Amino acid sequence: MPIINKDLDPAFQTAGANPGLEVWCIENQQLVPVSESNHRKFYTGSAYIVLNAVFPKSGPPHYDIHYWLGNDTKKVDSSLASDKALELDAALGSCSVQYREIQGQESQKFLSYFKPCLIPVEGVFTSKQGNLNGEYQVSLYTCKGDYVVHVKEVPFMRSSLNHEDVFILDTALKIFLFSGCNSTIQERAKGLEVVQYIKDNKHGGKCEVATIEDGKFVGDSDVGEFWSLFGGYAPIPRDPPSSQETVAQTVKLFWINLQGKLCPTGSNAFSKEMLETDKCYMLDCDNEIFVWMGRQTLLTERRTAIKATEDFVRNEGRSDKTHTTFLSEGLESTIFRSHFTNWPKTVEPKLYEEGREKVAAIFKHQGYDVKELPDEEDDEPSIDFSGTIKVWRVDGDELTVLSVTEHARLYSGDCYIIQYTFPGKGRDETLFYAWLGCKCVTEDKTAAISHINTMADSSRNNPVMAQIHEGNEPAQFFSILQRLIVFKGGNSSGYKKFIEEKGIVDESHNENLVALFRVQGTSPDNMQAIQVDQVSSSLNSSYCYILRTEAAMYTWIGTLSSARDHNLLDRMVELLNPTQQPVSVREGNEPDIFWEVLGGKSEYPKEKEIQGFTDDPHLFVLKITRGKTCLIDGSVYHANLLEFQLRRLQELSSSNETANLTEKDKNVDYDSLSIHPYERLRVVSPNPVTGIDLTKREAYLSNEEFHEKFGMPKSAFYKLPRWKQNKLKMSLDLF
């Protein structure tokens, strides 16, 4: 609803009445509304107020207020902007989160409003803009970030270039995209979006575009033209490795009194009870500052707190680009809450540690020497993840190369070949993956294997090949693609023909149809959205989901999901639809429309699901000495794979040992052994049997209990291959 307040700045009288963005700029110490057509044009000499209003289907509106300060903004305008932001917050009921945005240091939330980028303009805003004529100004920009991109103008000179970032050179007739050899695939893709934005908005869509690869400058006229603008080609120097040591961060909490004095209340260890509802506090995290304002504080007290914080930044010699966030009580961010010990938060259980200890205990108990390898985090990654990717979709004998934007969008009904090339020791290394969708047809699967073999044979650098199936991808595969969306259905002619012959409804992804995605992963550089059946039974309390309809988008947060999952959820929403604002739904508080879209509410898994296997690829060293197997354990790996490989190796080694077995070893009469109950024979039994052969626990079971547990008599069990015996024993906790 419109704000009715006679004392309120007239520019704010209708603020927050509708969802979406509203922008104001300070001109001659007055707030002036900025038209929607100029929302992206921020002048470096001006200060702006930006309001983003979100109206969920149920519950009150959500407001985020940002005040943006250009590098050349006058101090008086900066102070007025912070006052006006606080005034707007008070008018909206003191229920917004406020952000201080500095040119070049904007938050991801702020930049997400202006996709694909925000490029500040030199000068000062005026509501009476005139037409500027003159020579086209050549500009060089650097693009950083693969989620939301930070675009910054840098001096037009060779020394501005480096191997880490993506650069855009904007000239009157042509736009050049220069990709540093160490830049990521996502940064290059974002750079192309920025190029398109510049072409459409500064050139009216009429100019040439050229892409320049770092280090490649032979036989390309565009490359020659690019370097001629810098006075000719010269190598870009590599930055020396940083010698700076990481300094432990000290976090301090201050109470801000009515006179604006900062009163220290402690450092590093804080509790929620330290924050009183009638006071304002400043949490100093060095490179980021939070100002917390209690519900019962007055507007004048909040203004004093903001001024005191800005004076602190200036007087302490901090960078004026220090990011500051202003939080009202009850609207605290996850990062802010994480600094307080008793604030409710989700703790990630390291489930693999329990498994690692259990495996170690088992082998030690059996008399084997167990040695633990160092944690993986202390070692360098096995491959370089800054390489280049090419992806082809398989359609029988035909291969279709995918564009960069399609690399991370695979279909369950299709097969793909992924080529990953990265710098190795002295030469480039290449990996080939054949990714087989769970719904792909046999002819595409066969063709994919044939194609990948042909590609590998024609490669000169002895590539590594891997065949992987949807749902069983190794972590390395996810780390290479970084962000992956797996859609239902397929595009190959073989898949289309198959479903037509079988009379199966084509469920291939369609932007206009309802779709449900499960979000998973370990980090922003390793996350996936998997399309599942759009029914409520597909939900699971351990995950977060995205439900997209033609009219709205919902994000569903399971009660057992973690803070990491929530972060991945926000980022994945941007990939699926960057223009649509989602409605956040927490498990247990779903609106009726949510269940209606899923065809009604039904039962779904609500127990904690272990999601550890694909998170941690680990190496096991198997040492076999005279009949004794020693597993040097890094940590627990996928059980089936470990069991098969470990038991298979035992079989291979046993072929050389069979001749050394005595007749007594070959003809042990296990039926003559003493009988003990199953519960006392288990590895983790609280009252274990002693004085038995721990490698043959199952032999001490009675015939009846053996058949009950294994589903077969002992005679049939001992005819099985050794690896299969041990697999069954392990499943029953007898190995």
Automatic annotation (TrEMBL):
Alphabetized GO MF terms: actin filament binding
Top-level taxon in the UniProt lineage: Eukaryota
UniProt xrefs under PROSITE patterns: HP
Stored InterPro entries: ADF-H/Gelsolin-like_dom_sf, Gelsolin-like_dom, Villin/Gelsolin, Villin_headpiece, Villin_headpiece_dom_sf
GO process annotations (BP): actin filament capping; actin filament organization
Keyword Repeat found: yes
One Pfam assignment: VHP
Domain HP span(s) in chain numbering: 670-735
Alphabetized UniProt keyword annotations: Actin capping, Repeat
Presence of the UniProt keyword Repeat in the record: yes
PANTHER family named among the record's database cross-references: VILLIN, VILLIN-1
Protein name per Swiss-Prot or TrEMBL: HP domain-containing protein
Species, as recorded: Trifolium subterraneum
